[in-house]
Amino acid sequence: MVIESHGLAKTYRGCEAVRDVSVRVPEGSVFALLGPNGAGKTTTLRTILNILQPDRGEIYVLGTRSTLLASRHFEHIGYASESQRLPERLDVARYLGYLRSLYSNWDVALEEALLRQFDLPSERRLKDLSHGMRMKLLLVGALAFRPKLLVLDEPLSGLDPLVRDEVVNGLLQQAQDTTILISSHELTEIESFTTHVAFMQDGRLLIQEQIETLRERFRNVNVRLAAQQSLPAPLPTGWLLPQVAGHQLQFITSDYRDDQQLHASVREHFGAVSVYAEPMNLRSIANALMQDHNRRKAQ
Ligand SMILES: Nc1ncnc2c1ncn2[C@@H]1O[C@H](COP(=O)(O)OP(=O)(O)OP(=O)(O)O)[C@@H](O)[C@H]1O
């Protein structure tokens, strides 16, 4: 594992931001850490990088305990966050020159290629860069030393669609050699290159698995009922957000195996005329998990 945490917890003045998080990021993965605002994603990423210290639990990053990470380890770890502070008075060229001096493994040819690809104005001061340019510059700085691990906190937020595509393409090129841990709300954009997904809410990790497994077990199910009826209780625990309106039943199953098993399960609870199960994209699955968690919390 490139990252492995056990029972990670972090509290800010009475606010439990992260509770008992055990995460495992395999080598070569593009691991998406997802969840609503305030779920604890940034806190988790900062704790992994030793920017924050955990109150409980431990984390190993590239085999080293996070609290012992030092500059020699950061030669292999790239980090870009939209809230990162930069030396605003420097221009792009000077800033990259400064970074170059910090990394013995800095690849000048890659830096130049990324600068060309992202079309960054080398004479412009950082304080005058647009949000998109700033994010692209952070990525150049995080990628040009070919890190083994790249940690990205909201790299796509606030970018226009064209810049978003440029950044995604830049990441795709790197994904061959680098393990990427990415937190993002742009689920449609990241779905194509994500291999693993973890979903956080209220500081806890609700799921973590390969995206393929996640896609296989989630289905949006529409049922035509033989007669109008209300929802019987209890329903299978893997059924999320069930709703009945007239002769229509709709729910999301989180433990789909095949149509045969699904139809048998629906028939057991309802007189069903027809059952239709459609695959779901990452965005719909994340929304379902979030709504289901909120509904259960409110009960
Ligand atoms: N420095 C801080 N002091 C007090 N509370 C904090 C601090 N930083 C974060 N929090 C709280 O911790 C919780 C988790 O915040 P965090 O930034 O980790 O969430 P997030 O999942 O990254 O959210 P977002 O998607 O909005 O960026 C939130 O309730 C937040 O208000």
Features:
single chain; 299 residues; alpha/beta; 6-stranded mixed sheet; 5-stranded antiparallel sheet; binds adenosine-5'-triphosphate
Describe this structure in words.
Helices cover 34% and strands 29% of the residues. It has 299 residues and is an alpha/beta fold. The strands form three sheets. Strands 7-8-9-4-10-11 form a six-stranded mixed sheet, with helices on both faces. Strands 1, 2, 3, 5 and 6 form a five-stranded antiparallel sheet that branches. The mean pLDDT is 91. Bound molecules: adenosine-5'-triphosphate. Adenosine-5'-triphosphate (ATP) is lined by residues 12-13, 15, 17, 35, 37-43.
- Per DSSP E runs of 2 or more residues, the count of β-strands stands at 15
Task: Please describe the biggest sheet, giving its number of strands, its sense, and whether it closes into a barrel.
Answer: 6 strands, mixed
Order of helix and strand elements from N to C terminus = EEEEHEEHEHHHEHEHEEHEEEHEH
Bound molecules: adenosine-5'-triphosphate
Distance between the termini: 37 Å
Instruction: Supply the number of helical segments.
Output: 10
Overall pLDDT confidence: 91
Helix content: 25-40%
Which secondary-structure class do the elements indicate?
alpha/beta
Over all CA atoms, what is the radius of gyration? 22 Å
Put the structure in a nutshell.
With 299 residues, the protein is an alpha/beta fold.
